Amino acid sequence: MPPHGVHPAGNSHLAAALDLAAADVPALPLRDGKLPFGNCRACAKNVCGGRPNMKCAGTCRCPAVCHAWAAATTDPSVITSPPWAAAWRQAAAVAYHPGGAGLTVLDLDNPDAVAWARSELPATRTVATTRGEHWIYRGAMRSVNGVRDGVDIKSTMAYARWLGPGTGTITALPEIVRALAVKEPSPVRPAPQPVTVPARPGGGECRHRTPTYLDRGIAMAEQRITEARSAVHATVYRTFLAVLSTHGRCGCLTDTHVARLFTAAQTKGESVRHCTDAWTNARTTLGL
């Protein structure tokens, strides 16, 4: 992480991003509301295929500040490029991709969460936030929200706000933090059953049955769930509904596709039960 310093007059957010990039920490601007900038028209709804470092392994080379956490970069020529200039003028904050820097941020959102960390976790670098603290460890892992009350894990495929260098020495990611991301299997509800949907009337070949169309749709659905910052359960349901409305009547969906959607939802903290209920409710709404 970059050392503590005083930025010269001018765009302090841009200066902070360049400091992060110089320390090999991928940076990106955040707009008002502390959210990433939206995709440009060419990349709207991820029709471009996504950034190469996204889970969908896309091929998009858009120079704009697109694709949320996947826009984060350590390249100063990108950070200072004309396409990013407007974003920096509007930026409300700076963020970084912890996983891209080999880091994990434990976002402690209330005093009780901070007290728990101080009691149970190895000391490491801490950064004060508005409501709690960020605890930064060396080592990357998958990001999961709500692993405890007021505790989110931000590492791969996520971003964290840059709030300064903090205090203390960064230590290795402990197993107790990795264990927080492990979801115990539900003792009540079984794993989702294979999805069976009616065939298209007339038995003609499905116009969606192409790897590119279907895989892009599933990748977009995964991204929509992964990037949800609030109302996760509602987002999961609406995403399931959208997928089923497009592919639910033509026989395109396989167990593998459904498993990908469920995995994305469970990564955001949804239980198997909630996933199953949301899927069932979406099918019922569409009459499947």
Could you characterize the architecture of this molecule?
The protein is α+β, with helices and mostly antiparallel strands. It is 35% helix and 14% strand. The protein is built from nine helices and ten strands. The strands form two sheets. Strands 4, 5, 6, 7, 8 and 10 form a six-stranded mixed sheet that branches. The protein is globular, with a radius of gyration of 21 Å. About 10% of the residues have low confidence.
Anisotropy-based shape: globular
Number of strands: 10
- Unreliable residue stretches: 4-10, 185-205
- Spatial gap, N to C terminus: 51 Å
What amount of the residues lies in strands?
Answer: 5-15%
Estimated helix fraction: 25-40%
Tally of DSSP helical segments: 9
Alpha-carbon Rg, integer: 21 Å
Task: Please trace the helix and strand order, writing H or E for each element.
Answer: HEEHHEEHEEEEEEHHHHH
Mean pLDDT over all positions: 83
Main β-sheet: number of strands, strand sense, barrel status?
A: 6 strands, mixed
Structural class assignment: alpha+beta
Give structural attributes:
288 residues, alpha+beta, six-stranded mixed sheet, four-stranded antiparallel sheet
What can be said about this structure in brief?
The chain has 288 residues and is of the alpha+beta class. The protein is 35% helix and 14% strand. The radius of gyration is 21 Å and the shape is globular.
Topology of helices and strands:
Blueprint: H1 12-22, E1 27-31, E2 35-36, H2 76-79, H3 82-90, E3 93-96, E4 103-108, H4 111-120, E5 125-128, E6 133-138, E7 144-148, E8 151-154, E9 160-161, E10 171-172, H5 175-180, H6 211-226, H7 232-247, H8 255-267, H9 272-286
Parallel strand pairs: 6-10
Antiparallel strand pairs: 1-2, 1-3, 3-9, 4-6, 4-8, 5-6, 7-8
